Amino acid sequence: MDSAFTALCNILHILTLQKRNSSHLLILSSDDTAQNYVHLLLTYPSFDIISIFSLFDFRNIKRDKLASPTELMSFFKRPEPESRKVSRAAEIMEMTLHLIKNKVYQKYKRSINATDLLSFDSLIALANTSGCFPRVQPPTCSNSCLAHKYRTIDGTCNNRNNPRWGASNTALARWLPPQYEDGFSQPKGWNSEFLYNGLTLPLVREVTNRILHASNEAVREDTLYSHIMVEWGQYIVHDFAFTPQSSSQAAFLGGIDCQSTCNNLSPCFPIKVDPRVTSNGCITFYRSAPICGSGEQDFETASGLNPRQQINALTSFIDASTVYGSTPAHEVRLRNYTSQEGLLLTNTRYLDGGYALLPFVDQVQSPCVQEPNAPKGERVECFLAGESRANEILTLVSMHTLWMREHNRLAKALHGINPHWNSETVYQEARKIVGALHQIITMRDYVPKILGPRAFNQFIGAYSGYDKTLNPAVSNVFATAAFRFGHATISPKLQRLDKNYQEHPNYPSLNLHEAFFSPWRIIKEGGLDPLFRGLLARPAKLQTQDQMVTEELTEKLFALTNAVALDLASLNLQRGRDHGLPGYNDWREFCGLERLETKMNLSEAISDLDLVEKIMDVYKYPDNIDVWLGSLAEDFLPGARIGPLFGCLIGKQMKALREGDRFWWESPGIFTSAQRHELLKHSLSRVICDNTGITEVPLDAFQLGQFPQDFVPCNQVNKLNHQAWRENLKQVGLCGPPKPVEHGDFVLCNTSEPSIISYICHHGFQLVGLEELICTVKGWSSDPPVCKGKDFTFYSGNLPKLLLFQVRRTSQSAGEEGEEGERRERKGQQGRSEAMKGEEKRQRKICLRD
Ligand code: HEM
Ligand SMILES: [Ca+2]
């Protein structure tokens, strides 16, 4: 259409230049026309571009003062490097297209989508330079032995036909199309004049103030469930949903800091009209990052109208990614590669009564709160766990610590009974057990108590096997609304108890806001035990229709000083609008529930008439009700802690997380039946017994009980028997008449007859088991026989009769590989990323040579 656009095809590089706390974007182009065009872009109004990425980089912050609630929130919602790359790429792509569109508008005075102007090739070129293109390419799935045996760390290839289903850093699934004000990107409530059924949407803060807010004093306690159930809810969400916010903290166009504006300037989407004293009358809010190929940048179909989608930075699967991370790079940071026992790293400075603590993040001067009277220069940084939000509250980071300990405990036990396993096998086997325990505790102990029997049977029911047609990806409505039901069950106090389950004499209970981002309290105030006792023996908050979200969360979220705090209820509502979630009635219809169009109708679902009155007063029309608020207000289902709409949405999601997971613990072939039997004996209470100083627990951790009558000593709590994981070491007979073999020969061995193996060993050859065969052999540890001098040994559980091997010359390949492996191990300690490149190769080797 115009040479300037042709020139865009020639864009070669998009460079980001780091400058103090921010990075600037520069577009370089290859030919003169393009140079001119780019020059135009970079001069006036060049600040459009220069301001795209004003990254707030915590590494550069001098932490001599407390972080503000907004800074902490940004830390909390800050994407991990891998997700940051994904979201930055999408934002570069989106803003470049947006700028082009604006230029066209300025020049031709008519609005044309940038994607209509650019040829497919140009779009691809742009997608490539922005970093978006690789993000939409399907990963290649390995066919190696390990790929069939263990999950990938990022969840790719769980589904072999759709390898990105459930993987980290992919889009949250949409069960209903989003409703954006411009059709593809602008949040609900972005344009003040936009009408919904003839009405504007109420401000979210008004909804909170008038409907949701509950004072700290007015809290009804749950009579059935303990507070650890709430903590499990939060912890397990952090296994399957994290929607990172934009990587920029300043408006893309103009560069104004989101903290100092009350205007909607992407990615700033401030929460307006805050009656509390604030400088600008707004609570800072950043839009969630988009994902490549969505919003204004559909370069796959080049239609330009693919609605904006948000990212899930985590593996959707319940796979203990809280413990191991959701990307290869993060996993590497957590593992102890020097141990032979497949361990996770632990804190090298502090212990908790003999038990390990999580390591600190390597970013020094992290934003975590410091002990007020700490000796000068002494700092306690944030803990490093598999999930980036771990430090948010003391009880959450305690749960992360507990599972790191459980991994290390299991790994040591597995290594003890299988000394022939190498560290990788031990790590993967322990990881597999820990993942299975997360699934069992969630699906057997937690979900039924939330959903109640009716919704559980209707939407989940008994396990019916792996369904490869079911997409396990966490849905947008689940992460942004349904599973946030838990925010209404958080008690304003964190109780800390002593050995007799009484208020701890040294460490009194804390208000929630004193427990945010405060890892120092774990180290200086009694470790995990007082916190876990409080979780076990004190009740959850009961959500009632007149007491929804406690003041600690609506008025003091992340407030460590008197600074103006955030408001979790308003964040939830604003997030729903940011994601363009359809309204309450649309979701009821989606779930086969009737639409509630009048006050009378509403009162059928919400029996508290005062609440109905308030909702109608604020929203005026039921279709406009935000889905989180509407569903939260519904009467509970019998025996449940949620109403029918959340029951449906959570039930459907849980079913997908179970049946859509190829590695679900009950799926045939994942564990042996003996192992499944053992796994079922285990429980959260057992994990607490095994990894803390606590000696008495309730049998079901979530069930609220009185101490001491409802508690039992740990020796009465069932545990899994590791022996089900033992692989027997056997020396087998030789097979086949000796005959000359050569490097690369295949040898079929009958394990009950005399063998040529000794011949092979004598002649400096090694046998390498063929993956295909070995993977299909149950109980076979995938170790080929190892020549030891002139002898050889086999490691195996049940040896099959026939084995197929390939002969490899030891003097060259086997010897070299051994050394190379060691070298890589050593090198890996310094720079892990390089080792990652050889990951596939390394995995193959482990599989073959153990
Ligand atoms: C002290 C306890 C908790 C605090 C301080 C807390 C705080 C937060 C915050 C600040 C967000 C981000 C809000 C936004 O900007 O969108 C969030 C998200 C979320 N929370 Fe909580 N939360 C807590 C407990 C829970 C519990 C108990 C549950 C469920 C049982 C839960 C479920 C969720 C979910 C599903 C999300 C969205 C996750 C995502 O996709 O990013 N939270 N929480
Ligand atoms: Ca996960």
TrEMBL record:
Q: Give an example GO molecular function.
A: iodide peroxidase activity
Biological process annotations from GO: response to oxidative stress; thyroid hormone generation
SUPFAM superfamilies tied to this protein: Complement control module/SCR domain (SSF57535), Heme-dependent peroxidases (SSF48113)
Q: Per its Swiss-Prot or TrEMBL entry, what cofactor is needed?
A: heme b
Q: Which residues bind heme b?
A: 487
A Pfam family assignment: Sushi
In this chain the Sushi domain maps to: 733-789
On whether Nuclease is a keyword of this UniProt record, the answer is: no
Main location (coarse class): membrane
Localisation per UniProt entry = Membrane
Give the record's GO CC terms: extracellular space; membrane
Q: Which UniProt keywords apply?
A: Calcium, Disulfide bond, EGF-like domain, Glycoprotein, Heme, Iron, Membrane, Metal-binding, Oxidoreductase, Signal, Sushi, Transmembrane, Transmembrane helix
Topology relative to the membrane: Single-pass type I membrane protein
List, as start-end ranges, the regions of compositional bias called Basic and acidic residues: 821-850
Note down the stretches annotated as region Disordered: 810-850
- Please give the superkingdom of this protein's source: Eukaryota
Give the family, as the similarity comment puts it.
Answer: Belongs to the peroxidase family. XPO subfamily.
What's this protein's name?
A: Thyroid peroxidase
Organism this protein belongs to: Callorhinchus milii
Lineage of origin: Eukaryota, Metazoa, Chordata, Craniata, Vertebrata
